[in-house]
Amino acid sequence: MDEIEWWEFDSAKDMAEQVAGDIGFVIESALEAHKGARLAVPGGSTPDLIYAELLKRKDIDWTKVTLIPTDDRLVKLDDGLSNYGKLEGFFGARKADIVSLIDEAALENPQEAGRLADARLSLLQWPLDLACLGMGADGHTASIFPGPDFDAAVNGPRTRRAIGVRPDPLPDAAPVPRVTLTAPALASARTVMIVISGAEKRRVLEQALKEGPLSSYPIGRVVSAMDVPIDIYWSAE
Ligand SMILES: O=C1O[C@H](COP(=O)(O)O)[C@@H](O)[C@H](O)[C@H]1O
């Protein structure tokens, strides 16, 4: 793990403005450097304000931006739990290229769903320009959870970018199997941000960072695999 910098905000709105500005800068730099931007971005509820702020920017050519959910829930793409569906709702009308990790033909088979997502991702250019990570209060990030797929998600081969995940226990917020980008895929990004809010998540993240590579928290394991500087954005509410 390289250097970590914390950016603190009183409100989620203030944080969203800053994060959207910084993501905008990553997109601009990527477009200048290689004519396209490839970003992995989180699902869940934390990014909603950030995505709304990003859409206010008039200077982004979304047709040159590829958005990949850091993870998704194994549900139909129009299900309210779908992270792809969230991105489509925000950025679809701007014609961003939104890559789904979920193939609806494999909803009953997490391992096959992971293989199909991995094959789809291998058609993109790597590395990512940005991995923007959320985190649950239980310390999961993307959909890297404790369970039978945890080791493959954090310690699997560098060439494997997505896998199917059967969280054990299933998380209350969205109790379904998942597909996630692996720690090596996330760690290969040129830029890494973590975006969280609230005192409980901060306590968990600080503890995970203290524990390091053997952390019991998925976020601790993922951060330990990174070797670029990491910006952590935290809002009190
Ligand atoms: O299940 C998920 O949870 C995390 C955190 O979500 P939040 O609602 O607490 O912000 C999210 O980062 C991840 O992408 C998502 O699928």
UniProtKB/TrEMBL annotation:
It catalyses: 6-phospho-D-glucono-1,5-lactone + H2O = 6-phospho-D-gluconate + H(+). GO terms for molecular function: 6-phosphogluconolactonase activity. The keyword Hydrolase applies. The keyword Hydrolase applies. It is an enzyme of class 3 (hydrolase). Pathway: Carbohydrate degradation; pentose phosphate pathway; D-ribulose 5-phosphate from D-glucose 6-phosphate (oxidative stage): step 2/3. GO terms for biological process: carbohydrate metabolic process; pentose-phosphate shunt. It holds the Pfam family Glucosamine_iso. Its EC number is 3.1.1.31. Keywords: Hydrolase. Residues 11-223 form the Glucosamine/galactosamine-6-phosphate isomerase domain. Belongs to the glucosamine/galactosamine-6-phosphate isomerase family. 6-phosphogluconolactonase subfamily. PANTHER family: 6-PHOSPHOGLUCONOLACTONASE. Hydrolysis of 6-phosphogluconolactone to 6-phosphogluconate. This is 6-phosphogluconolactonase. It comes from Allosphingosinicella deserti.
